[in-house]
Amino acid sequence: MSAGVPPAAVRLETLIGDRRVGRFHVLLLALTGSVMFLDGLDTQAISFVAPVVAKEWHLPVAALGPLFSASIVGLMVGYLLLAPLAARIEHRRLIALSVALFGVFTLLCVFATDETQLIVFRFFTGVGLGGAIPSAVALASEFAPARRRSTFVMFSYCWLALGFVAASLLSGVLIPAWGWRSIFLIGGVLPLAVSVVLAVWLPRSPVHLLQRGEHAELHATLRRLVPDLSPHTTFVRDEPAAAKATRRDVLGRHRLAATLLLWLAFALNLGVFYAVLSWLPTVLLRLGHPTSTAVTATALVTVGGIAAALVIGPAMDKRGAFVTLGTVYLIGSALIAVLGFALTGSSGLLLAAAFLAGTCVTGGQMSVIALAAVLYPPRVRSTGVGWALGIGRAGGIVGPLLVGAALGAGAGARVVFLVMAAVFLLASGTVAVLSRVSRPAEVPVPQADPRPATAG
User: Fold this and answer.
1) Key word Secreted present in the record (predicted)?
2) In the chain, what are the domains?
3) d(Cα 299, Cα 449) in Å, to the nearest integer?
Protein backbone atom coordinates (compact mmCIF):
# COMPACT_ATOMS: atom_id res chain seq x y z
CA MET A 1 0.00 0.00 0.00
CA SER A 2 1.03 3.61 -0.58
CA ALA A 3 2.70 5.53 2.19
CA GLY A 4 0.24 7.30 4.39
CA VAL A 5 -2.59 4.86 3.77
CA PRO A 6 -3.97 3.44 7.03
CA PRO A 7 -3.66 -0.35 7.42
CA ALA A 8 -7.45 -0.74 7.30
CA ALA A 9 -7.67 0.90 3.88
CA VAL A 10 -7.65 -1.20 0.71
CA ARG A 11 -7.62 -0.38 -2.96
CA LEU A 12 -11.04 -0.84 -4.49
CA GLU A 13 -9.84 -2.47 -7.72
CA THR A 14 -7.58 -4.83 -5.77
CA LEU A 15 -10.45 -5.97 -3.55
CA ILE A 16 -12.66 -6.68 -6.56
CA GLY A 17 -9.95 -7.97 -8.89
CA ASP A 18 -8.59 -10.56 -6.46
CA ARG A 19 -11.93 -12.31 -5.88
CA ARG A 20 -12.63 -15.74 -7.30
CA VAL A 21 -15.62 -16.29 -9.56
CA GLY A 22 -18.67 -16.98 -7.40
CA ARG A 23 -22.47 -16.86 -7.34
CA PHE A 24 -22.47 -13.07 -7.37
CA HIS A 25 -20.57 -13.09 -10.67
CA VAL A 26 -22.95 -15.64 -12.16
CA LEU A 27 -25.91 -13.43 -11.27
CA LEU A 28 -24.15 -10.36 -12.64
CA LEU A 29 -23.40 -12.08 -15.96
CA ALA A 30 -27.00 -13.24 -16.21
CA LEU A 31 -28.36 -9.74 -15.57
CA THR A 32 -25.99 -7.88 -17.89
CA GLY A 33 -26.30 -10.72 -20.37
CA SER A 34 -30.08 -10.26 -20.47
CA VAL A 35 -29.49 -6.83 -22.05
CA MET A 36 -27.31 -8.46 -24.72
CA PHE A 37 -29.98 -11.11 -25.23
CA LEU A 38 -32.56 -8.44 -25.99
CA ASP A 39 -30.17 -6.83 -28.48
CA GLY A 40 -29.69 -10.14 -30.27
CA LEU A 41 -33.38 -10.98 -30.22
CA ASP A 42 -34.28 -7.61 -31.74
CA THR A 43 -31.46 -7.52 -34.31
CA GLN A 44 -32.09 -10.98 -35.70
CA ALA A 45 -35.89 -10.87 -35.57
CA ILE A 46 -36.00 -7.97 -38.04
CA SER A 47 -34.10 -10.14 -40.54
CA PHE A 48 -37.10 -12.47 -40.66
CA VAL A 49 -39.78 -9.81 -40.16
CA ALA A 50 -38.59 -7.47 -42.92
CA PRO A 51 -39.18 -9.84 -45.90
CA VAL A 52 -42.70 -10.61 -44.63
CA VAL A 53 -43.46 -6.91 -44.13
CA ALA A 54 -42.13 -6.12 -47.61
CA LYS A 55 -44.42 -8.76 -49.13
CA GLU A 56 -47.48 -7.61 -47.16
CA TRP A 57 -46.92 -3.91 -47.93
CA HIS A 58 -45.66 -4.53 -51.50
CA LEU A 59 -42.25 -2.98 -50.89
CA PRO A 60 -39.27 -3.44 -53.26
CA VAL A 61 -36.20 -5.39 -52.13
CA ALA A 62 -34.19 -2.17 -51.82
CA ALA A 63 -36.64 -0.99 -49.12
CA LEU A 64 -35.39 -3.70 -46.79
CA GLY A 65 -32.12 -1.80 -46.25
CA PRO A 66 -33.70 1.08 -44.28
CA LEU A 67 -35.73 -1.40 -42.20
CA PHE A 68 -32.53 -3.26 -41.32
CA SER A 69 -30.57 -0.08 -40.60
CA ALA A 70 -33.14 2.01 -38.66
CA SER A 71 -32.46 0.42 -35.28
CA ILE A 72 -28.72 0.42 -35.98
CA VAL A 73 -28.84 4.20 -36.50
CA GLY A 74 -30.74 4.44 -33.21
CA LEU A 75 -28.11 2.30 -31.51
CA MET A 76 -25.42 4.68 -32.72
CA VAL A 77 -27.31 7.67 -31.32
CA GLY A 78 -27.82 5.87 -28.00
CA TYR A 79 -24.17 4.89 -27.78
CA LEU A 80 -22.92 8.40 -28.47
CA LEU A 81 -25.45 10.45 -26.50
CA LEU A 82 -26.83 8.25 -23.72
CA ALA A 83 -23.82 6.11 -22.75
CA PRO A 84 -21.83 9.07 -21.32
CA LEU A 85 -24.77 9.76 -18.96
CA ALA A 86 -23.61 6.79 -16.87
CA ALA A 87 -21.06 9.10 -15.25
CA ARG A 88 -23.96 11.17 -13.89
CA ILE A 89 -26.86 8.81 -13.21
CA GLU A 90 -24.88 5.55 -12.73
CA HIS A 91 -24.95 2.30 -14.64
CA ARG A 92 -27.88 0.51 -12.98
CA ARG A 93 -30.35 3.35 -13.44
CA LEU A 94 -29.29 4.03 -17.02
CA ILE A 95 -29.55 0.35 -17.96
CA ALA A 96 -33.04 -0.09 -16.46
CA LEU A 97 -34.42 3.12 -18.00
CA SER A 98 -32.91 2.40 -21.41
CA VAL A 99 -34.27 -1.15 -21.52
CA ALA A 100 -37.73 0.15 -20.61
CA LEU A 101 -37.50 2.71 -23.44
CA PHE A 102 -36.57 -0.07 -25.82
CA GLY A 103 -39.58 -2.12 -24.73
CA VAL A 104 -42.07 0.72 -25.22
CA PHE A 105 -41.02 1.46 -28.79
CA THR A 106 -40.85 -2.21 -29.70
CA LEU A 107 -44.47 -2.53 -28.61
CA LEU A 108 -45.36 0.46 -30.77
CA CYS A 109 -44.04 -1.47 -33.79
CA VAL A 110 -47.04 -3.78 -33.36
CA PHE A 111 -49.31 -0.88 -34.35
CA ALA A 112 -47.26 0.40 -37.30
CA THR A 113 -49.35 0.79 -40.46
CA ASP A 114 -46.71 1.83 -42.97
CA GLU A 115 -43.00 1.73 -43.67
CA THR A 116 -42.30 5.20 -42.28
CA GLN A 117 -43.87 4.49 -38.89
CA LEU A 118 -42.02 1.21 -38.58
CA ILE A 119 -38.68 2.84 -39.40
CA VAL A 120 -39.27 5.60 -36.79
CA PHE A 121 -40.23 3.10 -34.08
CA ARG A 122 -37.25 0.90 -34.96
CA PHE A 123 -34.97 3.93 -34.63
CA PHE A 124 -36.09 4.62 -31.06
CA THR A 125 -35.85 0.96 -30.04
CA GLY A 126 -32.21 1.21 -31.07
CA VAL A 127 -31.73 4.37 -29.01
CA GLY A 128 -32.92 2.50 -25.92
CA LEU A 129 -30.54 -0.40 -26.39
CA GLY A 130 -27.71 2.00 -27.24
CA GLY A 131 -28.03 3.57 -23.80
CA ALA A 132 -28.01 0.22 -21.99
CA ILE A 133 -25.34 -1.91 -23.64
CA PRO A 134 -22.16 0.12 -22.89
CA SER A 135 -23.09 0.36 -19.21
CA ALA A 136 -23.83 -3.38 -19.10
CA VAL A 137 -20.37 -4.09 -20.56
CA ALA A 138 -18.71 -1.61 -18.20
CA LEU A 139 -20.45 -3.03 -15.13
CA ALA A 140 -19.57 -6.64 -15.98
CA SER A 141 -15.97 -5.57 -16.54
CA GLU A 142 -15.83 -3.55 -13.31
CA PHE A 143 -16.79 -6.54 -11.15
CA ALA A 144 -14.69 -9.07 -13.09
CA PRO A 145 -11.68 -10.73 -11.46
CA ALA A 146 -8.57 -9.06 -12.88
CA ARG A 147 -7.40 -12.13 -14.79
CA ARG A 148 -10.85 -12.86 -16.21
CA ARG A 149 -11.93 -9.45 -17.54
CA SER A 150 -11.95 -10.37 -21.24
CA THR A 151 -13.63 -13.68 -20.47
CA PHE A 152 -16.37 -11.92 -18.49
CA VAL A 153 -17.14 -9.51 -21.31
CA MET A 154 -17.11 -12.36 -23.84
CA PHE A 155 -19.43 -14.52 -21.75
CA SER A 156 -21.75 -11.59 -21.16
CA TYR A 157 -21.88 -11.07 -24.91
CA CYS A 158 -22.65 -14.74 -25.49
CA TRP A 159 -26.18 -13.77 -24.53
CA LEU A 160 -26.28 -11.65 -27.69
CA ALA A 161 -25.75 -14.78 -29.75
CA LEU A 162 -28.38 -16.61 -27.68
CA GLY A 163 -30.77 -13.80 -28.57
CA PHE A 164 -30.04 -14.40 -32.24
CA VAL A 165 -30.81 -18.09 -31.86
CA ALA A 166 -34.01 -17.35 -29.95
CA ALA A 167 -35.11 -14.90 -32.65
CA SER A 168 -34.53 -17.48 -35.36
CA LEU A 169 -36.53 -20.13 -33.51
CA LEU A 170 -39.36 -17.78 -32.49
CA SER A 171 -39.63 -16.32 -35.98
CA GLY A 172 -39.89 -19.78 -37.50
CA VAL A 173 -42.81 -20.61 -35.18
CA LEU A 174 -44.64 -17.32 -34.59
CA ILE A 175 -44.57 -15.58 -37.97
CA PRO A 176 -46.28 -18.40 -39.91
CA ALA A 177 -48.87 -18.87 -37.14
CA TRP A 178 -49.62 -15.33 -35.90
CA GLY A 179 -47.89 -12.95 -38.29
CA TRP A 180 -44.91 -10.62 -37.97
CA ARG A 181 -46.54 -8.39 -35.33
CA SER A 182 -46.36 -11.22 -32.78
CA ILE A 183 -42.56 -10.93 -32.80
CA PHE A 184 -42.73 -7.28 -31.79
CA LEU A 185 -45.32 -8.06 -29.13
CA ILE A 186 -43.01 -10.51 -27.39
CA GLY A 187 -40.02 -8.27 -28.10
CA GLY A 188 -41.74 -5.39 -26.30
CA VAL A 189 -43.21 -7.14 -23.27
CA LEU A 190 -39.99 -8.99 -22.44
CA PRO A 191 -37.74 -5.91 -22.01
CA LEU A 192 -40.35 -4.15 -19.89
CA ALA A 193 -40.32 -7.12 -17.51
CA VAL A 194 -36.52 -7.34 -17.60
CA SER A 195 -36.15 -3.62 -16.80
CA VAL A 196 -37.94 -4.18 -13.48
CA VAL A 197 -35.63 -7.09 -12.59
CA LEU A 198 -32.58 -5.01 -13.51
CA ALA A 199 -33.71 -2.09 -11.36
CA VAL A 200 -34.03 -4.38 -8.33
CA TRP A 201 -31.19 -6.89 -8.66
CA LEU A 202 -28.44 -5.26 -10.67
CA PRO A 203 -25.58 -4.03 -8.43
CA ARG A 204 -24.50 -0.42 -8.48
CA SER A 205 -21.07 0.64 -9.67
CA PRO A 206 -18.54 0.71 -6.78
CA VAL A 207 -16.38 3.26 -8.63
CA HIS A 208 -19.37 5.56 -9.01
CA LEU A 209 -20.41 5.12 -5.37
CA LEU A 210 -16.90 5.88 -4.14
CA GLN A 211 -16.62 8.97 -6.31
CA ARG A 212 -20.01 10.21 -5.08
CA GLY A 213 -19.14 9.53 -1.45
CA GLU A 214 -22.08 7.11 -0.94
CA HIS A 215 -20.14 5.04 1.56
CA ALA A 216 -23.00 3.10 3.14
CA GLU A 217 -24.31 2.01 -0.27
CA LEU A 218 -20.78 1.15 -1.37
CA HIS A 219 -20.32 -1.11 1.62
CA ALA A 220 -23.69 -2.79 1.05
CA THR A 221 -22.83 -3.40 -2.62
CA LEU A 222 -19.40 -4.86 -1.85
CA ARG A 223 -20.82 -7.19 0.80
CA ARG A 224 -22.72 -8.91 -2.01
CA LEU A 225 -19.29 -9.75 -3.42
CA VAL A 226 -17.34 -10.06 -0.15
CA PRO A 227 -19.77 -11.22 2.58
CA ASP A 228 -17.15 -11.07 5.35
CA LEU A 229 -16.09 -7.50 4.54
CA SER A 230 -15.38 -5.60 7.76
CA PRO A 231 -17.72 -2.66 8.39
CA HIS A 232 -14.65 -0.62 9.34
CA THR A 233 -12.88 -1.13 6.00
CA THR A 234 -11.97 2.04 4.14
CA PHE A 235 -11.09 2.35 0.48
CA VAL A 236 -8.70 4.37 -1.67
CA ARG A 237 -9.14 5.13 -5.31
CA ASP A 238 -6.78 3.99 -8.03
CA GLU A 239 -7.53 7.37 -9.61
CA PRO A 240 -7.84 10.79 -7.96
CA ALA A 241 -11.11 11.47 -6.20
CA ALA A 242 -11.98 14.38 -8.42
CA ALA A 243 -11.21 12.56 -11.67
CA LYS A 244 -14.15 12.45 -14.06
CA ALA A 245 -14.44 10.98 -17.52
CA THR A 246 -13.92 13.60 -20.20
CA ARG A 247 -13.56 13.59 -23.95
CA ARG A 248 -9.80 13.99 -23.49
CA ASP A 249 -9.67 10.58 -21.77
CA VAL A 250 -10.88 9.00 -25.02
CA LEU A 251 -9.63 11.48 -27.64
CA GLY A 252 -6.63 13.04 -25.87
CA ARG A 253 -3.21 12.99 -27.48
CA HIS A 254 -2.06 9.98 -25.49
CA ARG A 255 -4.99 7.81 -26.62
CA LEU A 256 -6.24 9.34 -29.90
CA ALA A 257 -4.49 6.98 -32.32
CA ALA A 258 -5.59 3.91 -30.37
CA THR A 259 -9.17 5.17 -30.19
CA LEU A 260 -9.38 5.88 -33.93
CA LEU A 261 -7.98 2.46 -34.81
CA LEU A 262 -10.38 0.82 -32.38
CA TRP A 263 -13.27 2.64 -34.05
CA LEU A 264 -12.12 1.40 -37.45
CA ALA A 265 -11.93 -2.20 -36.21
CA PHE A 266 -15.44 -1.89 -34.78
CA ALA A 267 -16.80 -0.44 -38.04
CA LEU A 268 -15.24 -3.14 -40.20
CA ASN A 269 -16.39 -5.99 -37.94
CA LEU A 270 -19.91 -4.64 -37.44
CA GLY A 271 -20.31 -3.94 -41.15
CA VAL A 272 -19.73 -7.60 -41.96
CA PHE A 273 -21.63 -8.82 -38.90
CA TYR A 274 -24.85 -6.97 -39.68
CA ALA A 275 -24.58 -7.57 -43.42
CA VAL A 276 -24.33 -11.33 -42.92
CA LEU A 277 -27.10 -11.59 -40.34
CA SER A 278 -29.43 -9.19 -42.16
CA TRP A 279 -29.09 -10.59 -45.66
CA LEU A 280 -28.20 -14.28 -45.26
CA PRO A 281 -31.85 -15.45 -44.93
CA THR A 282 -32.91 -13.42 -47.98
CA VAL A 283 -29.89 -14.54 -50.05
CA LEU A 284 -30.49 -18.21 -49.28
CA LEU A 285 -34.19 -17.99 -50.07
CA ARG A 286 -33.44 -16.28 -53.40
CA LEU A 287 -30.98 -19.08 -54.23
CA GLY A 288 -33.73 -21.64 -53.74
CA HIS A 289 -32.89 -23.00 -50.30
CA PRO A 290 -35.90 -23.94 -48.15
CA THR A 291 -36.92 -21.67 -45.29
CA SER A 292 -35.76 -24.20 -42.70
CA THR A 293 -32.25 -24.16 -44.16
CA ALA A 294 -32.15 -20.34 -44.20
CA VAL A 295 -33.27 -20.17 -40.57
CA THR A 296 -30.83 -22.86 -39.44
CA ALA A 297 -27.86 -21.37 -41.30
CA THR A 298 -28.49 -17.93 -39.81
CA ALA A 299 -28.82 -19.42 -36.33
CA LEU A 300 -25.55 -21.34 -36.78
CA VAL A 301 -23.70 -18.10 -37.53
CA THR A 302 -24.53 -17.02 -33.98
CA VAL A 303 -24.09 -20.45 -32.41
CA GLY A 304 -20.58 -20.44 -33.85
CA GLY A 305 -19.89 -17.23 -31.97
CA ILE A 306 -21.04 -18.78 -28.69
CA ALA A 307 -18.76 -21.77 -29.20
CA ALA A 308 -15.85 -19.52 -30.11
CA ALA A 309 -16.33 -17.37 -27.00
CA LEU A 310 -15.43 -20.38 -24.84
CA VAL A 311 -11.99 -20.31 -26.48
CA ILE A 312 -11.45 -16.66 -27.45
CA GLY A 313 -12.21 -15.15 -24.03
CA PRO A 314 -9.66 -17.21 -22.07
CA ALA A 315 -7.16 -16.79 -24.93
CA MET A 316 -7.46 -13.00 -24.70
CA ASP A 317 -6.81 -13.14 -20.95
CA LYS A 318 -3.88 -15.54 -21.34
CA ARG A 319 -2.27 -14.66 -24.69
CA GLY A 320 -3.28 -11.02 -24.98
CA ALA A 321 -6.31 -9.29 -26.42
CA PHE A 322 -4.59 -7.86 -29.49
CA VAL A 323 -2.90 -10.96 -30.88
CA THR A 324 -6.01 -13.05 -30.23
CA LEU A 325 -8.39 -10.68 -31.98
CA GLY A 326 -6.05 -10.19 -34.93
CA THR A 327 -5.88 -13.95 -35.38
CA VAL A 328 -9.67 -14.26 -35.17
CA TYR A 329 -10.09 -11.72 -37.98
CA LEU A 330 -7.42 -13.40 -40.12
CA ILE A 331 -9.03 -16.83 -39.83
CA GLY A 332 -12.45 -15.23 -40.27
CA SER A 333 -11.44 -13.78 -43.63
CA ALA A 334 -10.82 -17.27 -44.98
CA LEU A 335 -13.99 -18.73 -43.45
CA ILE A 336 -16.24 -15.98 -44.84
CA ALA A 337 -14.84 -16.73 -48.30
CA VAL A 338 -15.63 -20.42 -47.76
CA LEU A 339 -19.21 -19.49 -46.83
CA GLY A 340 -19.49 -17.51 -50.06
CA PHE A 341 -18.60 -20.59 -52.11
CA ALA A 342 -20.90 -22.80 -50.01
CA LEU A 343 -24.00 -20.69 -50.71
CA THR A 344 -24.79 -22.76 -53.81
CA GLY A 345 -23.63 -26.06 -52.36
CA SER A 346 -25.42 -28.77 -50.45
CA SER A 347 -27.31 -28.02 -47.27
CA GLY A 348 -24.76 -29.88 -45.14
CA LEU A 349 -21.83 -27.93 -46.57
CA LEU A 350 -23.72 -24.64 -46.22
CA LEU A 351 -24.60 -25.23 -42.58
CA ALA A 352 -21.04 -26.25 -41.69
CA ALA A 353 -19.65 -23.17 -43.42
CA ALA A 354 -22.17 -20.91 -41.66
CA PHE A 355 -21.13 -22.28 -38.26
CA LEU A 356 -17.42 -21.86 -38.97
CA ALA A 357 -17.82 -18.35 -40.33
CA GLY A 358 -19.88 -17.48 -37.26
CA THR A 359 -17.02 -18.40 -34.94
CA CYS A 360 -15.17 -15.35 -36.26
CA VAL A 361 -17.97 -13.04 -37.44
CA THR A 362 -19.99 -13.22 -34.21
CA GLY A 363 -16.97 -14.17 -32.12
CA GLY A 364 -15.08 -11.20 -33.53
CA GLN A 365 -17.80 -8.78 -32.48
CA MET A 366 -17.70 -10.11 -28.93
CA SER A 367 -13.89 -9.95 -28.94
CA VAL A 368 -13.55 -6.36 -30.10
CA ILE A 369 -15.88 -5.24 -27.29
CA ALA A 370 -13.73 -7.15 -24.80
CA LEU A 371 -10.70 -5.39 -26.28
CA ALA A 372 -12.35 -2.00 -25.74
CA ALA A 373 -13.08 -2.91 -22.10
CA VAL A 374 -9.38 -3.70 -21.60
CA LEU A 375 -8.17 -0.60 -23.44
CA TYR A 376 -9.96 1.99 -21.28
CA PRO A 377 -9.78 2.49 -17.47
CA PRO A 378 -12.93 2.03 -15.34
CA ARG A 379 -13.98 5.68 -15.02
CA VAL A 380 -14.04 6.17 -18.81
CA ARG A 381 -14.93 2.62 -19.83
CA SER A 382 -18.63 3.21 -20.45
CA THR A 383 -17.90 6.27 -22.57
CA GLY A 384 -15.04 4.57 -24.44
CA VAL A 385 -17.02 1.41 -25.15
CA GLY A 386 -20.15 3.40 -25.99
CA TRP A 387 -18.38 5.69 -28.44
CA ALA A 388 -16.59 2.76 -30.06
CA LEU A 389 -19.90 0.95 -30.50
CA GLY A 390 -21.52 4.15 -31.74
CA ILE A 391 -18.89 5.04 -34.33
CA GLY A 392 -18.57 1.37 -35.22
CA ARG A 393 -22.29 1.27 -35.93
CA ALA A 394 -21.53 3.38 -39.01
CA GLY A 395 -20.18 0.15 -40.43
CA GLY A 396 -23.27 -1.67 -39.23
CA ILE A 397 -25.45 0.86 -41.06
CA VAL A 398 -23.44 0.96 -44.27
CA GLY A 399 -22.85 -2.80 -44.49
CA PRO A 400 -26.47 -3.93 -45.02
CA LEU A 401 -27.16 -0.95 -47.29
CA LEU A 402 -24.17 -1.71 -49.52
CA VAL A 403 -25.09 -5.38 -49.74
CA GLY A 404 -28.66 -4.45 -50.65
CA ALA A 405 -27.43 -2.04 -53.33
CA ALA A 406 -25.00 -4.61 -54.72
CA LEU A 407 -27.59 -7.38 -54.88
CA GLY A 408 -30.13 -4.96 -56.35
CA ALA A 409 -27.60 -4.05 -59.06
CA GLY A 410 -27.16 -7.68 -60.00
CA ALA A 411 -23.96 -8.60 -58.13
CA GLY A 412 -23.62 -12.27 -57.28
CA ALA A 413 -23.92 -13.37 -53.68
CA ARG A 414 -20.53 -15.10 -53.88
CA VAL A 415 -18.82 -11.87 -54.94
CA VAL A 416 -20.46 -10.02 -52.06
CA PHE A 417 -19.15 -12.54 -49.54
CA LEU A 418 -15.64 -12.40 -51.01
CA VAL A 419 -15.68 -8.62 -50.52
CA MET A 420 -16.70 -9.15 -46.89
CA ALA A 421 -13.78 -11.58 -46.52
CA ALA A 422 -11.43 -8.81 -47.70
CA VAL A 423 -12.96 -6.45 -45.14
CA PHE A 424 -12.11 -8.91 -42.35
CA LEU A 425 -8.55 -9.12 -43.67
CA LEU A 426 -8.33 -5.33 -43.35
CA ALA A 427 -9.70 -5.60 -39.79
CA SER A 428 -6.88 -7.99 -38.89
CA GLY A 429 -4.30 -5.48 -40.10
CA THR A 430 -6.03 -2.71 -38.17
CA VAL A 431 -5.73 -4.66 -34.91
CA ALA A 432 -2.05 -5.36 -35.63
CA VAL A 433 -1.39 -1.61 -35.89
CA LEU A 434 -3.56 -0.95 -32.83
CA SER A 435 -1.44 -3.34 -30.78
CA ARG A 436 1.61 -1.20 -31.56
CA VAL A 437 0.16 2.22 -30.85
CA SER A 438 -1.88 1.30 -27.77
CA ARG A 439 1.10 0.44 -25.58
CA PRO A 440 2.80 3.81 -25.75
CA ALA A 441 -0.63 5.43 -25.85
CA GLU A 442 -1.54 4.19 -22.42
CA VAL A 443 -0.60 6.54 -19.63
CA PRO A 444 0.44 5.46 -16.13
CA VAL A 445 -2.34 5.02 -13.65
CA PRO A 446 -2.42 8.10 -11.39
CA GLN A 447 -1.25 7.61 -7.84
CA ALA A 448 -4.01 6.88 -5.39
CA ASP A 449 -5.30 9.75 -3.30
CA PRO A 450 -3.48 9.33 0.03
CA ARG A 451 -6.64 10.37 1.83
CA PRO A 452 -8.78 7.26 2.34
CA ALA A 453 -12.48 7.36 1.62
CA THR A 454 -14.21 5.87 4.64
CA ALA A 455 -16.93 3.32 4.02
CA GLY A 456 -19.44 2.47 6.62
Assistant:
1) no
2) 9-442 (1.20.1250.20)
3) 50
